[in-house]
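#struct-pred

JT: dropping the chains for the assembly here, can someone run the whole complex?
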Amino acid sequence: METEDHRREGIASRVEGFNDRARRAVHDQQLHDSIELFTHKSVAGRNAVLNALPEAPELRERAYHIKQETMANLDRYLEQMADAVEARGGNVYFATDGEDVVRYIGDLARRKGAKVVTKSKSMATEEIELNRRLEEDYADLDLEIVETDLGEWIAQLAGDTPSHIVGPILHMNRKRITEVLSRTAGEELPPDVEALGSFARRRLREKFVTADIGITGANFGVAETGTVATVTNEGNARLVTSVPPVHVVVMGIEKMIPRFEDLSVFVRLLARSGTGQKLTAYTNFITGPRQMGELDGAEELHLILMDNGRSKLLGTEFEEALYCIRCGACLNVCPVYRQTGGHAYGSTYSGPIGAVITPLLKGNEAAKDLPHASSLCGACWEACPVGIPLHDLLLKLRNQQVEEGLAGKAQEIAFKGFEITMKRPVLYKISTRAGRLAQKPLLKDGSVRPLPGPLSAWTDSRDLPPLAEKSFRELWKAGI
Amino acid sequence: MRVALFVPCYVDQINPEVGVSVVRVLRRLGIDVIYPEGQTCCGQPAFNSGFFDEARTIGRRFLDVFERERFDYIVCPSGSCTTMVSHYYPFIFKELPEERERSEVLGERVREFSDFLVNVVGAKDLGARLEGKAVYHCGCHQRRELGILEEPRELLVSVDGLELVEWGNEELCCGFGGTFAVKMPAVSTAMADEKVKALEQSGADTLISGDSSCLMHLKGRLKRTGHDTRVLHLAQVLDSNEGKAG
Amino acid sequence: MSGRAEFLESIRHRTQAGRYKPTNAPDVAWTRKGEPSESEPIEDPPARFIEELEALGGHGRRVGSLDEAREYVLDLVHEREAKLLVRWDIEELDELGVDEPLGEAGVEVVVWRDLVDFREVAGKADVGLSTAAWAIAETGTLVLEGGLGMGRTVTLLPPTYVAVVPVGRILRTVPEAIEKYAGGEAGGLPANVCFHTGPSRSGDIEMSLFVGMHGPGDVHVILVG
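RK: done, full complex below.
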């Protein structure tokens, strides 16, 4: 039962798979071009708006400390938010895992006799594969679940998954998108953005106005007021929360912030870091269901506070991973992500933050290779608007693997040998001399010939320099 | 002023000429240079692979070896190995108060080569001469943990005959990343190719860096792809006196 | 599944028992290369508002009187060949007085009250008309509150959306606007507050801008006074 659930949750699909997928990805020129287009524009946009905000460094510092304080008191803030939402006539449900969320929403849909469900982009629901599980577990309801973010919708139509937190289909070029939408339209659409966008607008409008339930995530949840903030450019979250009679929010518990005024820090950082804007087109704050006399807005609000593995990071050396506001900036600057794209990670969350939280939420066994999918260059840490030391967390994860015995015998022996050698200068000298002798027959044109075995990982694609005839210590001794 | 040299293990074994240049540049500035011969490696390869216990053993040895000596500063021709000592020793010794304190005390005195020259000695023009059109690659630890960005440039612009040019995406990692280069070879090589492409577009004939590890990686890829770009450590550039008497 | 008390208890346990102290507060300075344009004081908030809105593809106009505002709305409705305009049910817009001239010109005006099916009305309307609680100069943002007579979909479903806002309601910055709603408890907040900034947009297809994705692509703000 447990192993099956494990496989079914989409956050980490394969073990030891990053390298295989990455190898394919780096040879895919179309993918490479698509990623480059997206990341270059995103990084340039982000830099421009952040450079123009003199207090940005101070905001970043404040954001970090607000999150730190939130996590230290998360139980209290969760309770405060739940009370506030209930006081405004909303319903609150505490979900331990994805299973709980699916059951709550499925049962709600059954009670309401719902047919059409509209969703605005939500990573939390991607993480638990909400759509697929509702369609399977509640097949008798025959629900039509429609993603309404343009990118998410196209991914849904293509049977694909998002490859980036902010740009879900950056891996698809216009040709591919045109194919997908033409198939849906039942006619050949011209490959231009106006035609494709207009078609999507018409199609999705029908869904917006007939939906029985709207589902959103939450970019932030405010403890003090019970407010749920959603941030979009398309306006889909505002539609999903304004038109259907029922609004369900699936909020990861780490999205909490204590006070409404804290939004001033976070919405500014999120828009700038995520999309290079000062504010997104729709920064929407929902506090409870519609009030007496209002004609639109959901009559019923259900707030689902989802743990799904998050709380076990509280108070640990990995807690900072919970400070993430899902802006995607670390993906855009990551030189690994820029070569591989998001799908290589084989998990809902990709890039540096994905490499950190996937094993933390799912266990090291499930995503063993991800902490190694980084050169530890620290670009992620530099870009993070909340200052999460992502590459330090990757290092700690690598250490955790070693301590759990997951690093493998070969590595264990190698680093034991390394330790012993480096501890004793005599051994260090002997081994380097031995190396010099051993490499002699292998030299060619000033490099070591391509080698078999583990070093082939280097020599297959790069020349390897030989050990020098005399080491620095020997030269020093002889006199410089 | 007395300086203890910290020569990274791969410089010791693969690029000893970099260490020699460091010694010569420092001596030319009238600095007394010592080399604690018991030193081996800072332990970074083990640390980066998650083998913290092994890294701690090597780190303790490093502290022992250098604490025995008298000096004003430790100077290291690598931003990466400097960072291991100044930033990551306190990190791995976090729970061990004694070693943590020792590493913090020593960490204060470890300086990357260009940082030492510009910010401690106040030297900028070292009278070097080298003909060429060069790009400069800043190692990631040096860029982000140490924040030493301008110092190497200040030193390089004073080199007679050298034209320093900009290149695309210069903040991107070269793809070395220690064991990353062999654990994720396809991605690592693709990252190097990104740099090679930018280098080609810059029209430079020389690649300079303060980290021999980045240079080893980039040179390995450059050679394999048929480029004859000259690859030099900053210390070698500052030590060169091409076409000059004496 | 777990109950609320149990759920919170498990979190309480984790937040309090033997807390690890993170040591890594942000200490990489965010490099700043450009000119700090936003730090310059906003000298003329209405002008800045219009500048920002237009940079996003919206249209802004400052007028001296309600009469001029009315003319703007009437012209816009004619230009768009609109058949149906839906507007908020508030006094300010009664005073604007567009209902009668539009009716005479054959344009149906629906006021946001006692509607049998709001989806039908807002969905069919060609133009939505509202005012705003606040406007933010530094971003070209309208702050829209939901409430009695102030439908959310009025500003959202029609392809053309126009807001008439007295200049006195212009704030300089986003923090100033958030401040207006901060410090209270839930009781004081409208069920919906929306910071609406320019036309609805998407960049999901090859980062090319598509305007009017789900909300209005044609956004006009008339600043009065």
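JT: nice. Strands of chain B lie at 2-5, 32-34, 73-76, 110-112, 129-137, 160-164, 206-209, 230-233. Residues 185-202 of chain B form the longest helix (18 residues).
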